[in-house]
Design a protein that fits this description.
Elements lengths: L2 H28 L4 H23 L7 H21 L5 H46 L3 H23 L7 H22 L7 H24 L1
Helix pairs in contact: 1-2, 1-4, 2-3, 4-5, 4-7, 5-6, 6-7
Length: 223
């Protein structure tokens, strides 16, 4: 993944976590008799939405205009409700703020998931093309580089699959780990003699990348 994508994904994840944390704080405040606690929860949530509004108005924000407009409307609503009612908010008012946070948080995490799928699918496809191109060009130096990049990508995928935070089904994670180990063994096999390529092993690696890439793209379309 490139640094820009990594940064955008991390920012989205951080915002989603903050929205969920503040939703939880608002939920606790809504049933609390401590006015200071209520004021603090409302103030922190308002500051977050002011930051979101500033981000939306930035020239660097590449979200579609329709999405930005909708988020700006929500930001104005949160600001208006918070400043007009403050700690005199009803339980229904608090619930409204909580629901907004939870829905936007869920949307951000959905964007993250799709971004990861898209990025990984593209990377797998690119590695497959690079492996094929290096063989066609009969260029051992290009092949070594392509093999190395492909191996690094699969090590990354294996690390993701083994992560405790990964919500994929256990069977899917297990299959990805097995595929990563398979690609590692085939990389060593092909790398033993790049001047006399084992075409069957290389074809198998290319096909594996293409199939997983296609699967990721298909899942994204279904979602």
């Amino acid at each position: 993944m490139n640094k820009t994508t990594d940064t955008q994904i991390k920012d989205a994840e951080d915002e989603a976590k903050l929205l969920m944390n503040f939703a939880l704080a608002l939920s606790k405040a809504s049933t609390s008799s401590d006015e200071h606690f209520k004021l603090l929860a409302l103030d922190e949530n308002l500051k977050l939405w002011v930051e979101i509004e500033s981000s939306l108005k930035s020239a660097k924000n590449l979200l579609p205009q329709e999405i930005k407009d909708n988020l700006l409307k929500l930001s104005k609503y949160v600001e208006r409700l918070t400043l007009s009612k403050g700690i005199s908010m009803t339980k229904s008012d608090f619930d409204s703020l909580i629901n907004i946070n939870m829905q936007i948080s869920e949307g951000l995490l959905d964007v993250v998931k799709h971004s990861l799928q898209k990025e990984e699918a593209f990377s797998l496809l690119k590695c497959a093309v690079d492996l094929s191109s290096a063989r066609e060009n009969n260029n051992s130096k290009e092949l070594v580089s392509a093999l190395d990049n492909n191996l690094k990508l699969w090590i990354y995928i294996k690390t993701l699959a083994k992560s405790k935070d990964n919500k994929l089904p256990e069977e899917t994670k297990s299959n990805l780990i097995k595929l990563a180990d398979y690609v590692s063994s085939k990389t060593l096999e092909v790398g033993r003699d790049v001047n006399n390529v084992n075409d069957k092993a290389l074809d198998s690696m290319i096909l594996t990348n293409l199939q997983i890439s296609e699967g990721l793209i298909s899942n994204q379309k279904i979602a």
